[in-house]
């Protein structure tokens, strides 16, 4: 915990939060940060489709940049990482980017969409200014971004009733699913509402608990147990996890709205009280 605490107290990081009411405001903020501060930087997004849309905006404004997300082929991801390490180009990225990246001269981190928790935010801004030089960490807050994370929370915490339904469909329709794949299974589960990622979470849980073997993408998935394990059917555990994730999201909103020192707000979230103000965030100066 001592090492964790020392990581928060990095006086070279300037913490800022800006409320934006449109994509245009966010774009102007990103451009202002990238051109005003200069150097290498990361702009984080929660959704790939938003990242790609903002990339198009930057292209029309002639702002050179890189793009990184988990759906890119592994070879392309490695190439982008290598280019980022060697250049001063900013990268638009989902949180898939950054693990294993140790670039000391990252001058800015922008969250174009809010992260889902203070824990994620702390980890991601920690990649800035490792050389000890001044660096800016700016969060762009929009009320609409909360909807994205509320959906994430729902998708990542499927209810026991949904898991039971998924188990039943996989068991009863095994041959058709192996023949027709994901689209057929989605239609059986969601009818016309296919924009629902509880399926992916459910399949990951089934694999982890040894409920299934094979892969939906390879069209060889099959049930290998007679019933779901009790852990996946525990309603109280499901509700506790849901509440925990919602509380973490509320922590990000509280961080944005605070009028006190932002570093102090993060320290307080992690249980460190009576710490001195940083004198370097947008609330302190």
Automatic annotation (TrEMBL):
<keyword id="KW-0547">Nucleotide-binding</keyword>
<feature type="domain" description="Helicase C-terminal">
    <location>
        <begin position="26"/>
        <end position="178"/>
    </location>
</feature>
<dbReference type="InterPro" id="IPR001650">
    <property type="entry name" value="Helicase_C-like"/>
</dbReference>
<keyword id="KW-0378">Hydrolase</keyword>
<dbReference type="GO" id="GO:0043138">
    <property type="term" value="F:3'-5' DNA helicase activity"/>
</dbReference>
<protein>
    <recommendedName>
        <fullName>ATP-dependent DNA helicase RecQ</fullName>
    </recommendedName>
</protein>
<dbReference type="GO" id="GO:0006310">
    <property type="term" value="P:DNA recombination"/>
</dbReference>
<dbReference type="InterPro" id="IPR027417">
    <property type="entry name" value="P-loop_NTPase"/>
</dbReference>
<dbReference type="InterPro" id="IPR032284">
    <property type="entry name" value="RecQ_Zn-bd"/>
</dbReference>
<dbReference type="GO" id="GO:0005694">
    <property type="term" value="C:chromosome"/>
</dbReference>
<dbReference type="GO" id="GO:0009378">
    <property type="term" value="F:four-way junction helicase activity"/>
</dbReference>
<dbReference type="Pfam" id="PF00271">
    <property type="entry name" value="Helicase_C"/>
</dbReference>
<dbReference type="InterPro" id="IPR036388">
    <property type="entry name" value="WH-like_DNA-bd_sf"/>
</dbReference>
<keyword id="KW-0067">ATP-binding</keyword>
<dbReference type="GO" id="GO:0006281">
    <property type="term" value="P:DNA repair"/>
</dbReference>
<keyword id="KW-0347">Helicase</keyword>
<dbReference type="Pfam" id="PF16124">
    <property type="entry name" value="RecQ_Zn_bind"/>
</dbReference>
<dbReference type="GO" id="GO:0005737">
    <property type="term" value="C:cytoplasm"/>
</dbReference>
């Amino acid at each position: 915990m001592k090492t964790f605490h020392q990581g928060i107290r990095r006086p070279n990081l300037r913490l800022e939060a800006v409320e934006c009411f449109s994509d245009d405001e966010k774009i102007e903020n990103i451009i202002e940060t990238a051109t005003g501060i200069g150097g290498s930087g990361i702009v984080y997004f929660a959704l790939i489709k938003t990242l790609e849309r903002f990339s198009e905006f930057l292209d029309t404004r002639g702002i050179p940049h890189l793009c990184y997300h988990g759906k890119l082929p592994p070879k392309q991801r490695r190439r982008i990482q290598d280019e980022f390490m060697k250049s001063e180009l900013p990268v638009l990225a989902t949180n898939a980017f950054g693990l294993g990246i140790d670039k000391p001269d990252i001058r800015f981190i922008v969250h174009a969409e809010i992260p889902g928790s203070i824990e994620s935010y702390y980890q991601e801004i920690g990649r800035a200014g490792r050389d000890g030089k001044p660096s800016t960490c700016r969060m762009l807050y929009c009320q609409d971004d909360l909807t994205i994370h509320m959906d994430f929370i729902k998708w990542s915490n499927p209810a026991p009733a949904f898991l039971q339904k998924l188990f039943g469909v996989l068991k009863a329709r095994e041959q058709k699913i192996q023949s027709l794949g994901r689209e057929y299974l989605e239609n059986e589960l969601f009818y016309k509402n296919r924009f629902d990622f509880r399926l992916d979470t459910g399949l990951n849980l089934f694999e982890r608990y040894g409920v299934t073997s094979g892969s939906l993408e390879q069209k060889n998935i099959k049930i290998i147990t007679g019933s779901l394990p009790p852990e996946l059917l525990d309603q109280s555990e499901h509700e506790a996890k849901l509440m925990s994730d919602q509380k973490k999201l509320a922590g990000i909103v509280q961080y944005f709205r605070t009028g006190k020192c932002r570093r102090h707000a993060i320290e307080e979230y992690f249980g460190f009280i009576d710490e001195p103000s940083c004198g370097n965030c947008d609330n302190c100066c």
